[in-house]
Structures
1.
Amino acid sequence: MKKIILFADPGIDDSVAIMYALLNPEIEVLAIVSSYGNVDKEQATDNIAYLLHLAGREDVPIIGGTNAPSSGETPTYYPEIHGEDGLGPIRPPEEISMELTNFSELYTIIRDNKGLTIVDVGRNTSLASLFLLGEDLTEDVKEFYIMGGAFFVPGNVTPSAEANFYGDPTASHLVMKEFNDIYLAPLNVTNKAIITMEHVQTILEMTDHPLVQILDDVMKYYIDAYKKLVPGISGAPMHDVVTLSLMVNPSMGKTIRRDVDVLTAGSGMGTSIADFRVSSKPAEKNSNIYLELDYEAFLKDFIKVMSSSGEK
Ligand code: BDR
Ligand code: CA
């Protein structure tokens, strides 16, 4: 069983990642940090509260993360991919809301759960803040699983930059430079984690769990958006879900140990760089980049977890 704190900005694939984490018997969600990203922080918080309500898991605290990137610029949101409110066509009922827990509570949770894993599937501003505001986490956090960057493939917001790293490149640069025990799931791997409407139907035929019932509408919106972006694609990439799936099943992918740099300015802003030359050396610190994914294993795991009862 892995104990995790999940940093997210739901967002459709973030929302499915939250469902996956709550349903997976191998994962105990200690807290979810809500931040700006695919939608603003307030909307992200309402979406997390709605998902926790559907799961009957209002005991999981929602921690208030950051509102904007460290540049101070107004964030760009992506309604064409994630919907106006981040859940495709779904608007969470107004009467469902949860109080935000103060950011400082994260230090208590981390101290009380030594050896936990931190998973960040959004912009890295909140995670960088954890370092900037507090003490050294290396003793207490076992590993950081991060969705971000792109190697050997184009970016998804600029020719070379991926959305999470582009959203706050200064924060991503800091996280990659200062943190240890990093496992990075970049676009070259997450783009392959395609889920189709046929897969969704298979899941829905196997479960009547209330949390999963919104999957149909949410995934239809997300897949339609991707079909406009990438002609010929059969479904949509579950960037954030596969990051969690790799955390539980690390051997489902192959990693290479390399330092990662993130460009913070210029036309390459948000671009991730690592040295893959034959003469290059493994990173001195434990910094790992996923380069390969066993797609069939991911698919099997995704369907199994999403159709499970959620009993831990
Ligand atoms: C990442 O950007 C967001 O839009 C997704 O939720 C994912 O975390 C993919 O580039
Ligand atoms: Ca995300």
Note: The mean pLDDT is 96.
2.
Amino acid sequence: MKIFIANWKLHPLKFKDASALCAKISGIKTKNKVVLCPPLPYLPLLKTKFELGAQNISAEKEGAFTGEVSAAMLKQFKVKYAIIGHSERRELGETDFEINKKIAQALENKIVPVLCVGFGIQKDEAEEEVLGHLKRQLQEDLQGIDPKKVLVAYEPVWAIGTGKPATPEHAERVAMFIRIQFKVSKILYGGSSNAENFREFLERQIDGLLVGGASLDPKQFGEMIQSK
Ligand code: PGA
């Protein structure tokens, strides 16, 4: 069984389109684990047999934090997963300290954190340096956290939304490194995965995919989640 996490980001613009996309994906038969992460307002309204996830959660539980939504609130709306530390949020200034607090909030509320790492990595960087970078990120993000309860998505920032994925060999070596060093439960790859290239990743020691662009195309995402 593989894991497919659909990160819809800030799409689709209209709820009726989100609902239609959700219905199409939900009509697909699969033994794999599928998690849909729509924009927040759609979350309580979508009907699906698959699991639901948030794209972000607050580092705080409750209080004077304008614009925030906490894990304790989300869990009341069947949210079982939360993407945490996505590079598009790190780009906005999210720190490893905050990410660590978010992971703790998720776990306290029985939400599985999907920790994204790979922000700040250069495409031409030597693999050794990439691993050093990831090690520092993971050490801070997972401080005081039981790693067995966390899913990690390796998403080299240069591969996200560019149509230029990492090589499956590189993704696998990184996944093995994270698995051995940090003992996390599962490791996914994310960054321009699609119906054309997904098999090459899943053939390797990679537990699944965090899919952005291709998850908005039911035909393509459907093909991906049906993989055996
Ligand atoms: P992408 O996005 O598949 O569109 O590259 C992946 C992600 O941002 O999680």
Note: Residues 148 and 185 are 5 Å apart (CA to CA).
3.
Amino acid sequence: MSIFKHSREGSQSLRINAPAKINLHLEVLGLRADGFHELAMVMQSIDLVDYLEITSNLDGLISLSVDDSNLSSGDENLIVRAAKLLRSRSGFDNLGATIHLQKNIPIGAGLAGGSSDGAATLIGLNSLWRLNFTQKQLMEMGAELGSDVPFCLEGGTKLCFGRGERLESVNISSTPPMAVILVKNSLESVSTPWAYGRCKEIKGSDYLKYETDFERRRQQLRNESWLSSFSALNPPPLQNDLQQVVAPENQSVQDSLKILSGFSGSLGVAMSGSGPSCFALYSNYNDAKVVYDLKKNSLKELGLDSWCCSFQSTGVAFEL
Ligand code: C5P
């Protein structure tokens, strides 16, 4: 089946989905020469998904509409930046696109929603504009757009090193997939630069300094036994170094972690990325859903948006 829909004018469209991620592990190792932090992470795609509808044109016009008034549709949106970067690398100024974003992933939440939208734009327009850039080339462009974009292009479960853009595969078995109950205060968002800046202020004196020390920590993470098989008996221990600096200054993170810690059957709770969204981990969707159905009304009354999501093994993907 073709991923393209053809219109009478000769333009083509497609629909692409862009999943969120959570961090099962986020360790801040040190500072890099480029001012970013050196990280050791395990990222996991979940089935909370934004949808992009993209129609190509040859008028050189790139326009974005968004169904969420809290989000800019201008040049600073990662979708527009990704489209313009791809076009400039192609050398064809006449390439254009009309893009509509159906936003489901909360904004400024630590779930890489913007990065996933950027990744979806790269994949979608590479196809619609028939540019044939390789996955490796798209990953390099992704890394220029943001540290999490390469992960979003690949998805699943990945070790992410460097700024977050150096991916390594994990040979993991988990049947059925694990699941999370995810919560976020609807009024709160956290700025990623602020969270890393605060981390530097608080923990900077303890940062590792040398590449040999970074590599030793990477190797320790690669060897973790929970990374070969996710199971209730050997669950991910859930470490997030940013949680330690964001939670004391963000009441909604403290409240979310406390509420989730009281949920029965959970294998652990943590903040995702730079927050403020937090999750409780479950060994499978059915177990998570039973608790979620009992709790979702009270979460709403407490001002928390919530979702029950499964782990998924893919990143951005075309809708057939
Ligand atoms: O790469 P991205 O645009 O997502 O990063 C946003 C900000 O988060 C950076 O400008 C930087 O302040 C901080 N950051 C960092 N180290 C990383 C990733 C992000 O300090 N590895």
Note: The first strand starts at residue 5 and ends at 6.
4.
Amino acid sequence: MINDISNNNTYDAIIVGAGFAGLYQLICLRDQLGLKCLILETGDDVGGTWYWNRYPGARCDTESHAYSYYFSDELLKEWSWTERYPGHAEIREYINFVAKKFDLKKDILFNNKVTSSTFNESENNWSLITENGNQFKAKYLISAVGCLSNANIPNIKGLNTFEGKYYHTGNWPKNDVSFTNKKVGQIGTGSTGIQAVPVIAANAKHLTVFQRTANYSVPARNQPLNDDFKEHVKADYKNYREFLKRTPNGHPFDISERLVSDVNEDERNEIYEKAWEKGGLQFRATFQDLVTNLDANNTAAEFIKQKIRKTVLNNKFADILSDIDHPYAGKRPPIDSHYFEAFNRDNINLVDLRADPIKHIDEKGIQTKQDHFDLDIIVFATGYDAMTGPLLNLNITGKDNLKLSDYWKEGPKTYLGLQIAGFPNLFTITGPGSPSVLTNMPMAIEQHVEWIRDCISHMNKKGYSLIETNNKVSEEWGQEVNKVANKTLLPKVKHSWYLGANIPGKPQVFMPYAGGLPKYNDICNDVKKNDYLGFNLS
Ligand code: NAP
């Protein structure tokens, strides 16, 4: 057990988080630059998001051949996914495969949740303390904590009196939860809730879904991958790599250049119908203007609402589920496996919280304004304090005793989502202000990790020991993030976690960069070519 700061506990770089980002950063800094590195991780194994997200139905909505590291030819040739979309257990197998192949676990300290991170100005390094009292120092602190790792259980009166069990989907127990003969209540119908409903309903005695905001969803059409496809991916990985890096969202499909107004109603419906049958996130790529033009968006929105009304046989449920108040893909668009069909079961109920809000939770279940629901288990599929929450949890103090929580009082301010003024030598992989959650995450992660590696390599070659951005460029970058977001419908959506609006009291700032990964990559490369313009290296 490590318990004091000695030379052994001093590193060139400490990376926080052992998910996709942390592992690749370790490979880059340790194996490519020869630095002494350590990953600190809260969980007891690798996996990041997928370590925690084991809820029923948890599955990635990026197609598996794209939800992969692309930095290693060998890895691409050695690994085969089994389904169109990878399930949570298979993603953990993949991450473990990567950890083993690159011998990463020897430099990861599990069960070490970082509780405090402080920059020492006299030494130009970071001090870290973990929950169990271990202390470390590092020249560079690199956060790989993910964007959606801070589970949010809403503050509902009486939860602590509930005599049953309750779980948040983002913090799901390792030993499977049994729903057999149980009356279950699920709060939340975002991407997570929509995946969980059909699986819970199929296993529980009864499921009551508590919906605050109705949501769109398109069928995922998950299926096992056949050998031909697996071979094709292995043979063609160079083309896939090139493709994924040039599409705005890093997904394996093109966004159409046609506008909704380019086609007549019949043609449009035929296009939507084909995309519905094919399934997946490419539904939103059927027309170029779906997320920029409300009239165009309304056509897709209406198409999906019709599908919901056709699928759901109970008219009351169909009305509640199709009464959607925001544009399609204005929030992250879910994809599903038989979500709407699940409402045709006879062991399911749907409560419209807009009409009948939750008053409190008591020993026996959930009390709404009009009704009481007896429950054995409550599932919170209520989302995350996204993007800023995981970083603020590191309890970061920078120069002049500046606390990140104070610096970000009005919302996150970063330069390129990579660095924060006043916090030297701290890099934030997929931080607020970068494309991150608007893309296929492994693509955004690889781009950031490689940029950070190149930056540190440059500093080492030039003999610099400190890198810091400033307020001026951070403000300008914040304006750019807003400008780009305002060209889309995304910032106008109520309750969106992209804005922080899902967390009471959180400042509302549109957090991800919506200009697409290739454009963002060009900006980062220009900064690099121009001697790290916007950063002070000393
Ligand atoms: P989310 O999108 O934030 O959805 C949370 C749900 O909980 C919403 O329906 C929300 O209602 C509801 N809710 C929150 N607080 C509530 C309260 N106090 N009372 C009643 N309802 C409440 O969270 P998520 O579904 O976990 O998804 C978050 C993100 O994770 C996704 O957008 C996606 O990026 C990622 N994700 C990806 C996958 C995948 O790859 N397949 C799967 C799951 C999640 P309101 O809408 O009214 O706020």
Note: DSSP finds 16 helices and 20 strands in the chain.
